[in-house]
Every structure is written in structure tokens, then in C-alpha cells.
Amino acid sequence: MGKLSTVLGKDVLVLQRFEGTDRMNGLFDYRVSCLAAQDSDVDFDQLMGTHATVTLKGQDGSDRHFDGLVTEGRWLGSGDNGQRFELRLQPWFWLATMRRNQRIFHEKNVIDILNEVLAAYAAAGTLQVDTSGQYPTLEYTVQYNESDFNFCCRMMERHGISYHFAFSEGGHDMVLTDGVEAHENVGSFPVKPYVGHHQEDTEHLWEWRPGRRMATGAIRMTDYNFKTPTVVMEKDQTGTASYEHGQVESFDWPGDYLDPGRGIEMVQLGLKREGGRDKRYQGMGDISNLVSGKKMTVSGDSDPVPGKGAEYLCLVSQHSYTSDNYGSGGSSGDDFAYTGRYTFLPVEAPMIPEKKTPRADVRGPMTAKVVGADREEIDCDEYGRILVQFHWDLSDARSMRCRVAQNWSGGTWGGMIIPRIGMEVLVEFLDGDPDKPLVTGCVYNGKNMPAYPLPANKTKSVFRTDSHKAKGFNELVFEDESPDEHIAFKAQKDMSRLVLNNSISRVKNDDIENVGRNKLFEVRNSFALDAGKSVTITAGQVGPDVSSAMARTSGLRGIAGTHPLAVHGGFGRTGLLKADETGADANHAMRNAGKEYGDAAQDLSEAGMLELLAVNYRQDVTGMDSHEVVGRDKLAAIGGDMVHEVGGDVELVTNRKVDINAMGNFISNAMSHTMVSATKFTIATPGAKLELGPTGLTISAMTVKVQSASVDFNMGAGGQAAQLKGTSAFVAGASALLGPQV
């Protein structure tokens, strides 16, 4: 005897026929045929989405309930017994097939995720969690463009969690398990073959058919964790199958683990999943309360039955019930009112759900917005990973830390550019897995426009940064517009350059450098400056004092009055220093400023000239020796005093004459003063003349006065006169008078 209960009330719909299938790790699907009185007004709007319960009486008189939500209803017509209807009953978990979602879960394990997703259906049914395993916390899990049902099934299959349904009058629960111990045993039932018209008084099986099938006997997996790239991740395990080809191996990548310890667990889980597909038992009987997810024991003392005395878990149950008053003739004596077909798994076999729900892969890249901590402009971790928010994420959740592809990467070398908060980036997914995002590029949008207006500046290739928490930027610009090709570089503040070996710079035309303040030039070894025409070094503006000194210098007189740097006010151009540092076209100002310098530099045309102009002060210090070689003339024009202080000897050698003109006094002060002339030595004043020559001493004067305490005139011998002839003899004599020199 059976009955049907609905929200329409008691006995409004009368059960005629019930059939359908329930299975572990699947949705049950029941069809209910029922009758209503001819004058009944069945409102499908009242029925849809509500619970309906089929209750069957067992052989022992107990009630067995099959409850589900009414998801379909059909009117089949009317007859002598009333109006005929068919209802379709499915679990509340079926509602999850209608909801498609995109969302992100952070730092949750699989049970946490399932509870959160299925909480939306709490009004329709209850979720019971009866698991015993420990599940790892998942850093990042994405439900992407898949139904809640597919997402939950995929997560359960991934972690080896099974589900089934437990029925009660007016409701049903969804039960999560990860071991056979959590499943209820409904009793022991004998196997009694069905013969003729015989019908037993106790529920039993009349068909029992054991079966086997080959399964993968070995599992090998590997994976990769970028945080530990050198760790060996490969794991494998072989099963215990003893039949031929029972060790066929399956190799899976990726293995879905981040460390070798978890890898061992995943390999074991995979081997159990494959092993659980081996043994199956098919049965047929009238055990109406044997639904999927329940256990039973095969009993009996008569005929030998394979597997008798063992416990089995029901994986699939197909139900068929016909009411005694169905149709016009009632039930035939040749048929049972209830018949069930069952598929069993031995309880000692692993109970792991098959991986049958495909992952919702991401096909192609998508864009996202870079996000991060409040009041920050850049937010990254030690690996340069950033946070992004996808446009489809309505909950404003952030992604996991996404790795950022660089143009080059190595051990502390390569490129390093961190996308900033607010930028729009291009995100791809490794192997299409939504749980593995990878930032591969950046794109402009209506808020973040290019550095230079387009298409006006389409020939530019630009790399511009943005000062952190300040206004300004560093920039490198390549201009490819012919014939004005140009490269411009701007440092917002400082610039450092390190060359560990040689540095060579070749400029085919002008080379202009402007320093706003000081410049230090340090060379630890040699320094050579080679100018094909001239070199000019100017310190300060060229004033009247310097111009006067230059005018007195005949060799420089032609340059001083017409020098282009003097005409232009020295290095007074401001193009480089006053370029718009916050505008969009600073490099144009830099380039134009350089052009002005180039125009001035074209006038530096005096060949072979070095000009040093110090307006205020100049100091030359040499720690050891100093040598100066002048190929032709040298002229020094000094506006004030000149002092030479020498710690050792002073020697002046010239191939021609030496002129010393003193407009004032000439004073020579020495401990000993020797003057040697090879031919003639003359001392002359306006009134007298003293001349020493090869023939002797001649004194010419209006008056000669000799004042001395003693005067000795000695004629000497004739031989001494010969010795005094010739320069060498006289010089030797003079040296003898001076004595030894240090």
C-alpha cells in the first residue's frame, strides 16, 4: 500500500504508480503517477517547488519515505477514475543546477566552501556533514561560470567526498560522507531465487550477480610550486590487483598539490578511486527501504551465494511500485507491488567518487583591475605578486596574489615592473584553471590614458613611470618620426650609472651637457682630452675684469670679444632646467634646449685652442711632478701680483733672448749671485755703462768714484790671461768662486 502527500492536502492526489532512480553522488529522479477527483482543481503553481512524499509500506509494516521537490507536473487526461497527473520529484540540491555563479573563496577548506554555497538552499532542505577526514585550507578557489551544482560536485570529487540523500516524511537531507562507516545498515536480507508465482513474506533478494572489471592499477602524479621550484614533487603508488595487466599506470598532471606530503595523499586518493571501480554486485528484490547510501548484509543458510555474510553499500537503487487499484484491473498476482534493482559495492572496497564533473576552464585572457591595501599605490608581496579584482566579481572580492609575468626573470636579475593599484591588467590562467591566474600585461582604458595624446604621437615609443605618492615621473622616449628621430631620457630626481669596465660614447655631431649646480669629475688613473679644434672652459660669466685680461693677451684678443658663449651670456640657456617636469611633453623641451646649445657650439671654430676662464679664483695643485710643453708661444697676462714659491732650484733655459721689463723697481736678493755670459755682459744706466767681454772690463761714465776701505789692483801673471780666454775656463772659475752647490 502506498500514498502520496503534497501541499494540496490529504488524499487530494492518490498514488497510482511510483518509479525512479536514486544513486550515490547523483540526483535522484522519481516519477509519480496519481489520480485526482473529476471535480478537483489542481493548481500547479501551488505544487511547483514544494515537497511531495511517497510513502510505501514494507513487509514488516513500517513506512518507507521517498521525498522530493516537485519540479515538473503534467496533466495526462481524465478517465472513469478521475483526472490523471504525473509529477516529477527531485532533491533540493537540484535547485543548484539552476543557479550559475562567479565568485571567489579565500582561505577555506572544502567543507567550509560547501556549507557557504549550499546555505542559499537552506529553506528547501538540510545539509548534513558526516565526514571524518582532515581537509587542507585552500588559499584560493574560484567558481567561474558554472552552476552551484557543478561547482559543489567538482569540489567533492576533487577531495573524495560522497553525498547521498536521507528521506523522512515531508523532507529529505543531503548527507556528506568520506567513509563507509558513516552509512546506515538497514538489515540483513537473504537471497531467494524467484520461481513461478511464489512470493515471500519477508523482504529479500531474488537476484544476486557478482561482477568484476579491470581498473587502473598504478597512479603517478607530479605538480609544481613556484615557491619551492627545486623540490621533487613526483609521487606514485601501485595497487594490489593480481590479475593480468592489473598494474597499468595512469600519469596525471597537474596533481593538485603544493607539497610532497599532500602529493602522497592525492596519489593514494587516486588509487582508491580507481580501485573502487573494480567490484560490483547487481541485485533485484523487494527491499523498499534500500536506497542509495544505505548498507545491507547478505544472509541465508540454504543455497551457496557468493559473498554471503558480507556487508555491501548500495550505490544505485531503481524503484518501481504499482498500486493495487492502478488502472481497471488492479495488480496481477504474478507481480510484486514493489520491485527494486540495486547496484552494490563491497564495504571493504574504497568508496571514492569518480571525477566526472569537468572543470569550467577559462578560455582566453580577461582583464581585471589592480587593487590593494587602502591608502597605498603599490601593493605586492616578496614575489612581486599583486591583487586584482575581476569585472565579474559582484562581491568586490579580491583575487589571490597573482604572479606577474616579466619580460625577463632570473635569480636576482631580469625585469621588475609592478602594476600599480587602479591599473587595468590582462590576466591569463595556467592550463585554463580559474584557480591559477597569471598577470601577463597591462592595457589602457578611459580613465588611464596613454602618456602622450594619440594618434598625434603615434611615432613615439614611451616608457614612463609614476612617482610614488607624489607628482612626477621618470621617462624614456623613442621618437621614430623621420627625419627627427630622437631618444629622450628624464630622471625625476637622481640618476646613477655604473660601468664595471669600459664606457664608450661616440657623438657624430654636437654633445651638450648642462649641470644646474656642481659637478665632480674623478679619474683614478689617467685622463686625456683630445679636441680637433679648440677647448673652452669657463667658470662663471665673463665680466669686464676677465675681458680686460683677455684684451691684454694678444694671443686671445681675437677670441675674447667675439666668443659665442660670451655673446649668449655663457651657459645661461634654461631649456634643460626649465622643461615642464609634470607636463606631457617634457622631452620636446629637452630636445629644443639641446638644439640651442648646438647652434652656439657651431661657432667654436678656432682650431687647436684651449681656453680656461675662471671669473673669481683658480687653483692648480699637483702632488708630485708637473710638466708643461708649449709648441710655440706662451703669454701670461696677470692683472695683479704674481708670486712663484719654489722649494728647490729654479732653472730657466731659452734658445733665444730673455726680456724682463719692470715698470717699477727690480730687486734680486740672494745669498750668492753669479751671472755668467758666454760673450758679453753689460750693465747700463742713463749715466754709465759697465761692459764685460772677452777683452776685459770697460767702464764708461762721466765720473767714476771708488769708495772702499782698501783697494787692491793686481796685474797677475801672463799665463792667467790665457786661462781667462774661452767660456769654459771662465765658467769653471766662476763655479770655483761659488763653491759646491746642493
From TrEMBL:
<comment type="similarity">
    <text>Belongs to the VgrG protein family.</text>
</comment>
<dbReference type="Pfam" id="PF22178">
    <property type="entry name" value="Gp5_trimer_C"/>
</dbReference>
<dbReference type="InterPro" id="IPR017847">
    <property type="entry name" value="T6SS_RhsGE_Vgr_subset"/>
</dbReference>
<dbReference type="InterPro" id="IPR037026">
    <property type="entry name" value="Vgr_OB-fold_dom_sf"/>
</dbReference>
<dbReference type="InterPro" id="IPR054030">
    <property type="entry name" value="Gp5_Vgr_C"/>
</dbReference>
<feature type="domain" description="Gp5/Type VI secretion system Vgr C-terminal trimerisation">
    <location>
        <begin position="461"/>
        <end position="539"/>
    </location>
</feature>
<keyword id="KW-0964">Secreted</keyword>
<dbReference type="Pfam" id="PF05954">
    <property type="entry name" value="Phage_GPD"/>
</dbReference>
<dbReference type="InterPro" id="IPR006531">
    <property type="entry name" value="Gp5/Vgr_OB"/>
</dbReference>
<protein>
    <submittedName>
        <fullName>Type VI secretion system tip protein VgrG</fullName>
    </submittedName>
</protein>
<dbReference type="Pfam" id="PF04717">
    <property type="entry name" value="Phage_base_V"/>
</dbReference>
<dbReference type="InterPro" id="IPR006533">
    <property type="entry name" value="T6SS_Vgr_RhsGE"/>
</dbReference>
<dbReference type="GO" id="GO:0005576">
    <property type="term" value="C:extracellular region"/>
</dbReference>
<feature type="domain" description="Gp5/Type VI secretion system Vgr protein OB-fold">
    <location>
        <begin position="379"/>
        <end position="444"/>
    </location>
</feature>
<dbReference type="InterPro" id="IPR050708">
    <property type="entry name" value="T6SS_VgrG/RHS"/>
</dbReference>
